[in-house]
């Protein structure tokens, strides 16, 4: 009977060891999956960083183009007003002294 109890305890202990082993293997597998997921996230983060740098350069370039366009527009408007005033002045001058 004692020998059977010993075998029974040994068998129970072996089952518990097997259960712990299975749990540890499952934990190892999950840890590896998390590691892979973290590597994927790091890669995606790096891609996003690069895209944000490109976006920032593009927006700066576009901003400079818009500022240049606005300056050109202001110069054209100022030139047009000055030219209009000169023409108006010439018309007034010619009508005063011609008539």
From TrEMBL:
The lineage of its organism: Eukaryota, Metazoa, Chordata, Craniata, Vertebrata. It comes from Poecilia formosa. InterPro entries: Synaptobrevin-like, Synaptobrevin/VAMP, V_SNARE_CC. The chain crosses the membrane at residues 75-94. This is V-SNARE coiled-coil homology domain-containing protein. Signal peptide: none annotated. Residues 31-58 form a coiled coil. It holds the Pfam family Synaptobrevin. Belongs to the synaptobrevin family. Its main location: membrane. The keyword Membrane applies. It is found in: Endomembrane system. It is a single-pass type IV membrane protein. One of its GO terms (biological process) is vesicle-mediated transport. The keyword Hydrolase does not apply. PROSITE patterns: V_SNARE. GO terms for cellular component: endomembrane system; membrane. Keywords: Coiled coil, Membrane, Transmembrane, Transmembrane helix. SUPFAM superfamilies: SNARE fusion complex. Residues 9-69 form the V-SNARE coiled-coil homology domain.
């Amino acid at each position: 009977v004692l020998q059977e109890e010993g075998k029974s305890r040994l068998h129970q202990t072996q089952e518990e060891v097997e259960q712990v082993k299975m749990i540890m293997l499952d934990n190892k597998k999950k840890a590896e999956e998390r590691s892979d997921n973290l590597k994927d996230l790091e890669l995606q983060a790096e891609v996003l960083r690069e895209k944000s740098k490109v976006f920032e350069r593009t927006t700066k370039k576009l901003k400079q183009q818009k500022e240049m366009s606005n300056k050109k527009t202001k110069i054209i408007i100022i030139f047009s007003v000055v030219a209009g005033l000169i023409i108006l002045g010439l018309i007034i001058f010619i009508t005063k002294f011609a008539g």
